[in-house]
Design goal:
The protein is an alpha+beta fold and 319 residues long. The protein has two domains: 176 residues, Fructose-1,6-Bisphosphatase, Chain A, domain 1 (2-Layer Sandwich); 127 residues, 3-Layer(aba) Sandwich (D-Maltodextrin-Binding Protein, domain 2). 27% of the residues lie in helices and 25% in strands. The strands form four sheets. The chain has an eight-stranded mixed β-sheet, sandwiched between helices. α2 packs antiparallel against α3. It binds 2,5-anhydro-1,6-di-O-phosphono-D-glucitol (AHG) and manganese (II) ion (3 copies). The site of 2,5-anhydro-1,6-di-O-phosphono-D-glucitol (AHG) has 12 residues, from β5.
């Protein structure tokens, strides 16, 4: 049997949702080309514009955003796009029942661009709300689908519509996403964690305790050695966890307390929590399930602890 392609796998699913996912996958192929050609086309570096996050936008942050908007806005059921790089929702039409809202982080880990490390794109899809169709502040429980593309040693598109997680690899010669990683599942236990330890002095006691118990190794209370990885691209860290297990932490700490953490709820934490849950993992703030948070603002940030279920359960128990 020949390997399955993304459109074939989506063929028996909801047609409106499938065509939006296909449009997103096409945008991701375009972003992969932008990323891989960036030095040649003079697109590395910054624009000089500060986005709503207070970050200096890279040229590719904006080019990736523009490509998603251009390709996805042709979809007749897409009412609005919420993007990391745009302050307000972009309304494409008057929202009608069953229309979709798309949430995107067009380029994740963009500080890795200049050093040729993995970056990605993250997306999430909900329907417009039934009580207020213009309200895009929908909790993660309303997600119909979520996924990411990783522009790494290969380009992959990983997507879930809630029941399972399927991973596709871009065939460079044909331009097709081929199903190479069916039914991705996160192992329940792990001996690998991911956290930016340069922030250790700001951590609160549950995180201090967890990391010190891991680094104590075999002689410590965990009785085993742990490995640590941090790529500064959430897509790359989550992808590694989907492939071989692990736990990713970007907690609220005493230095980012006022903002609520670093990771943005609507287009980073919610989609990754949805995918991790569909892959048998868990995603929490430490105090509550990420998918239960009721968003209060568009670019709201949250603590994120996600990955292998045993580790997330343990870290929650320390809160
Ligand atoms: P983005 O590039 O979309 O702004 O996101 C970067 C995020 C996330 O991908 C990553 O895990 C984290 O920022 C890295 O933060 P540090 O710079 O503190 O390592
Ligand atoms: Mn950014
Ligand atoms: Mn990001
Ligand atoms: Mn980004």
């Amino acid at each position: 049997m020949s390997p399955l392609k993304l459109p074939e796998v989506l063929a028996d699913k909801n047609q409106d949702l499938s065509s939006l996912i296909l449009a997103i996958s096409n945008a991701c192929i375009g972003v992969a080309n932008q990323v891989k050609n960036s030095a040649l086309e003079g697109n590395l570096g910054v624009t000089g514009i500060i986005n709503v996050q207070g970050e200096t936008q890279q040229t590719l942050d904006l080019k990736a955003n523009d490509l998603f908007v251009k390709i996805c806005s042709a979809n007749p059921k897409l009412a609005a796009i919420v993007s990391e790089e745009v302050e307000e929702p972009l309304w494409l039409k008057e929202p009608e029942k069953d229309d979709f809202i798309l949430y995107i982080d067009p380029l994740d880990g963009s500080s890795n661009l200049n050093v040729d490390l993995s970056v990605g794109s993250i997306f999430s899809i909900t329907r417009v709300g039934s009580s207020d169709a213009r309200c895009v502040l929908r909790s993660g429980k309303h997600q119909l689908a979520a996924g990411y593309a990783i522009y790494g040693s290969s380009t992959m598109f990983v997507v879930s519509t809630g029941r399972d997680v399927q991973g596709y690899t871009l065939c460079v010669s044909s331009g097709d996403f081929i199903l190479t990683h069916p039914f991705m599942t996160i192992p329940k236990s792990t001996s690998e964690f991911a956290i930016n330890t340069s922030r250790a002095r700001f951590w609160k006691s549950p995180i201090r305790r967890y990391v010190s118990e891991c680094t104590a190794g075999e002689a410590g209370p965990r009785g085993q050695d742990f490995n640590m990885r941090w790529t500064a691209s959430m897509v790359a860290d989550v992808h590694r966890i989907l492939v071989r297990g692990g736990v990713f932490l970007y907690p609220k700490d005493t230095n980012n307390q006022s903002t609520g953490g670093k990771i943005r709820l609507l287009y980073e934490a919610n989609p990754m929590a949805f995918i991790v849950k569909a892959a048998a993992g868990r995603a929490s703030t430490g105090d509550e399930d990420i998918l239960s948070i009721s968003p209060k603002s568009l670019h709201q940030r949250t603590s994120v602890i996600l990955g292998s279920a045993d580790e997330v359960n343990l870290i929650e128990s320390y809160h």
